Amino acid sequence: MSKIIDCRGLKCPEPVIQTKKYFESINEGEGEIIVDNEIAKNNILKYCKNIGYKVELKEQREGYYRIIANKELQCKCEDISFNNGTVTLVISTNEFGEGSKELGTMLMKSYMFALSESDKIPENIIFLNSGVLLTTKGSEVLDSLTKLQERGSNILSCGMCLDYYNLKDKLEVGEISNMYTIVEKMGNSNNTIKL
Fold first, then answer.
1. What is the pTM of this model?
2. What does the pLDDT average to over 53-65?
3. Theoretical Cys-Cys bridge with 173: which of 4, 49, 145, 167, CB 3.0 to 4.6 Å?
4. Which stretches make up the UPF0033 domain (predicted)?
5. Which residues are designated catalytic?
6. Residue 135 has what DSSP assignment?
7. Pair type for strands 154-158 and 175-177
8. pLDDT confidence band for 138 (50 / 70 / 90)
């Protein structure tokens, strides 16, 4: 019988943290995670897949989702390094530099284009605070970000930040992420660059 991890009513990143704690406490086994929103559901599914667990969305009803995850004994989940030898870029503003807003907007557009054309690209590009404006409808850098994503960069926008700016339904490129994943990506990266 699987353990029930009831995450209804918990705010990001608590559902992922509760799931992680449970699976770290066992060598192998199954867990049934219950969440009450789509973002938490997606975060749990991504986390379990990234770590190497078998995962399945079992049902969606009455405002909640039921997810079954299975940790197998041979899974060497603790040995996984997502960003070994990689760079994570953290962008916390929609402008590049301080001073003129107009110039900052032009510089960010130029920077993103140059980055998308560069030989080496970051494994992860994380958008926080007003940086999430760059990944949403109306952004002037969507083409560059789409190209970076197609070339292999993980584009992650902070869900709390998208909520704050009322932009969650306007995300155009990348995925909605949570602070737990953001901390993990930054911590596992050889280099983290903040703009």
1. 0.65
2. 86
3. 145
4. 5-29
5. 12
6. G
7. parallel
8. very high
% of residues, the chain, pLDDT over 70: 93
Long-range contacts, 159-162 (Cβ 8 Å, 24+):
159/12, 159/39, 160/12, 161/127, 161/128, 161/129, 161/130, 161/131, 161/132, 162/132, 162/136
Q: What is the mean pLDDT of the chain?
A: 88
Place of tokens 């110039």: 103
In whole angstroms, how far apart are CA 172 and each of 38, 86, 162?
17, 25, 12
Task: Say if residues 154 and 182 touch (Cβ distance below 8 Å).
Answer: no
Domain ranges of the chain: 3-79, 87-194
CATH 3.40.50.12710 fits 87-194, yes or no: no
**Cβ within 8 Å of residue 137, ≥6 positions away:** 167, 170, 172
Cα 39 to Cα 47: distance, rounded to the nearest angstrom: 12
